Amino acid sequence: MDLKPNDFILDSRLAADCFILGKLDLSVLLLMNNQLVPWFILVPQTDRKEICELNQNQQTALLKEINIISNFVKSEYPQVSKLNVAAIGNMVSQMHIHIVGRNPADYCWPNVVWGNQQKEAYHESEVAVITQKIRGIIA
Amino acid sequence: MDLKPNDFILDSRLAADCFILGKLDLSVLLLMNNQLVPWFILVPQTDRKEICELNQNQQTALLKEINIISNFVKSEYPQVSKLNVAAIGNMVSQMHIHIVGRNPADYCWPNVVWGNQQKEAYHESEVAVITQKIRGIIA
After folding, report:
1. Rounded to the nearest 10 degrees, what angle do helices A56-76 and B56-76 cross at?
2. What is the pLDDT of residues B16-38, one digit of tens each?
3. Rounded to two decimals, what is the model's pTM?
4. For A61-120, what is each residue's pLDDT tens digit?
């Protein structure tokens, strides 16, 4: 079933672990509260669990939003040499797509970030800067 | 730069770890040699490293191929309750997209498969069966 906009409720674990940066056409955009890497999460406003269960318009919208955030990470974080883009959902079943900027000097390269417990919370002022930058491209 | 079809060379590590099942319009389809989970890999025939660097036609083709393989895993492996779809590439830079069928009884649930060394090779006859089934949908 597709959700009406007002029926969307962000999963409580995502809400606890992340900052809400804004909304795109399909997805809510989150920032994982871990400044060790630039780590964004798109949460499509749907109750489908898998990308292949989205209709074609939703898939097209999601791809566009992945492109927007991918290009944002590449341009704003010059140290990033590889993007990790992933829909996993083994722990949080609400569909969400990770977009993580990685580089060989980061805290868990070449391993994946998922499952690694190391983190460093953002300062409030840093989140404000990222929010301002991202709102310039998703407005 | 985009590759001419004959210029595509599969990365040696992917070639060593996987069976080649066939070709779709954009991608070569691989089967990870680990029967602990159904684990397919799409390798777009390009030398771009990131999905966001593909042109729109390539992105559309890739999304279609992800849908085909996702639906194949859902229909052929009824135990699968979650798909993990991911473009990582920290170890193998050639663009490749993992499509892994997961379930709460599998060998590393709820952790991700990447970084886990446990594996169980396929028998030749099992690969032949999977190849035959998949060729029916990608032909």
Report:
1. 120
2. 999 999 999 999 999 999 999 99
3. 0.96
4. 999 999 999 999 999 999 999 999 999 999 999 999 999 999 999 999 999 999 999 999
**B56 and chain A: CB distance < 8 Å anywhere?**
no
CA-to-CA distance for A113 and A34, rounded, in angstroms?
A: 11
Q: How far apart are CA A127 and CA A123, in angstroms?
A: 7
Q: Measure in Å the smallest separation between the Cα of B40 and chain A Cα atoms.
A: 15
Amino acid identity, residue A137? I
Q: Residue A55: its chain B contacts at CB < 8 A?
A: none
Q: Are A83 and B82 an interchain contact pair (Cβ–Cβ within 8 Å)?
A: no
Interface membership of A64 toward B (CB under 8 Å): no
- Tell me the C-alpha distance between A128 and A13, whole Å: 22
Q: Are A62 and A27 in contact (CB under 8 A)?
A: yes
CB contact under 8 A, A82 and B70: no
Number of residues in chain A: 139
A75 touches chain B (CB under 8 A): no
| Contact call for residues A31 and A23 (beta carbons, < 8 A) | no
**Does A90 touch chain B if contact means CB atoms closer than 8 Å?**
yes
- Distance of CA A6 to CAs A2, A45, A120, B129, Å? 12, 10, 33, 47
- pLDDT mean by block of 10 residues, chain B; 139 residues: 76 98 97 98 97 98 98 97 98 97 98 97 97 90
CATH of the domain at B20: 3.30.428.10
For residue B60, give the amino acid letter. Answer: T
**Domain enclosing residue B121, as ranges:** 5-138
Nearest-Cα distance to chain A for B125, in Å, is 29
Number of domains, chain B: 1
Which H or E element spans position A56?
Answer: helix A56-76
